Amino acid sequence: MKRLNLLFFALFLFLFSGLNAQNKEQARIWIDTLASPFMKGRGYAHKGDQIAADYLAGEMKKLGLNPFFKGKSFLQPFTHSVNVFEKEQELYIGNRKMKPGYEFILSPFSGNVQGNFKPVIYKDAEIENIKALLAKEKSFKKKAIVLWPSHAEMVKKANAAIAECLAKTEAVILINPTKLTWSVSDFLVNGKAVFEVGAKYIEDFSPNSKLKLTSRSEFQKTYVSNNVGGYIEGAIKDTFILFTAHYDHLGMMGSALFAGASDNASGTAMMLDLASYYSGQSKPKYSLLFLAFAGEEAGLKGSRYFVESQPDFLKKIRFVMNIDLMGGGSIGSTVVNGTVHPAEFDRMVAINEQYQLLGRVKARGKAANSDHYWFSEKGVPAFFMYAEGDVTAYHDVDDTRENLPLTRYNELFLLLRYFIDGF
């Protein structure tokens, strides 16, 4: 009898691991495609997000999902404003040309600035007294204000001083001793630019150093993006559970590619993987909508448009499960809105403990940090889950498919599936 139990347990582990390996293998294909140079970082330079939207619509069709939007389409177009850095950006300190994306980035609201500048350097104590020091300088014409903090807390003060500096000059350089982290802006400060330089790449920088700066952006007020959605009809047709993930990322800053493998090719692949699983099963209890949002990095634009354009549909939603950053997980996962919906969160914790999937499942309160937010604001119950551990790249050029381990992908997949199956 004992031998039979061991054989049964070994067979269970084999089937369990085989199922997971298959899911992980397909997820890797989706991630590698979404994070490839062909997708242009799924941002706004070279219309990378539109390339990704068409690809996702095709994948949903292959999986047998029904198109969700008007006209039997997988795409829901909407317009929003965004500042685009399609052309090459340049920064020379002395004779050294800094490498865009790796050694310097531009603040995403930067406009068009070009020319040679003389640096005016302010360090820690001077940064704290920046207003008075700026007032003493007669003119900043063709001068670039350089803020050079020595540690992370002083970086915060330097960032707070940037607006004061931009009122005096057209170019500011922040020498950052911490990580370079890029973003997307839906507004433009025309004729002004902020260059952020990694302190570890500075070899020689003094008030006598020559600076050559080129910032080139194009502000697009009515850029067209697309949400992508497909569904599986359930036994209860008019009640929906949503799996959501944003597929957009930062795109490109000139030649610098921000591929976004973790953020959020991984969550998008997880969503497609779940769609693949459920499309191969018998009819689910509730209808399942798989929704890939655009414009998350630009300010949750896609999810806001969806929510505001679908007031009647919101009444049909049983629950929203928003997923992001699924590439690691050795520490566990965090659930935003976990404290808002304690019964659902406790059930997720119980599932995790029962199947011993992740090291921990931690609750977090309400936060406007991803696409669940607009649903929550309309009273629709929603979770936002992200994995923790293993992945340190975030909003930088190192968030690549090669650097994505998918450590606990299988366990995250099962936790999400078992949780949704419990409704």
According to CATH, the fold-level topology of the largest domain is Aminopeptidase
Rg to the nearest angstrom?
Answer: 24 Å
Give me the CATH architecture of the largest domain, please: 3-Layer(aba) Sandwich
- According to CATH, the homologous superfamily of the largest domain is Zn peptidases
Dominant shape:
elongated
CA distance, first residue to last residue: 36 Å
Instruction: Label the structural class.
Output: alpha/beta
CATH class of the largest domain: Alpha Beta
- The average pLDDT value, as a whole number, equals 94
Q: Give unreliable regions as ranges.
A: 1-22
Helix content: 25-40%
| Whole-number tally of structural domains | 2
Strands, total number:
19
Main β sheet profile = 9 strands, mixed
Strand-residue fraction?
Answer: 25-35%
**Succession of helices and strands:** HHEEEEEEHHEHEEEEEEEHEHHEEHEHEH
Number of helices: 11
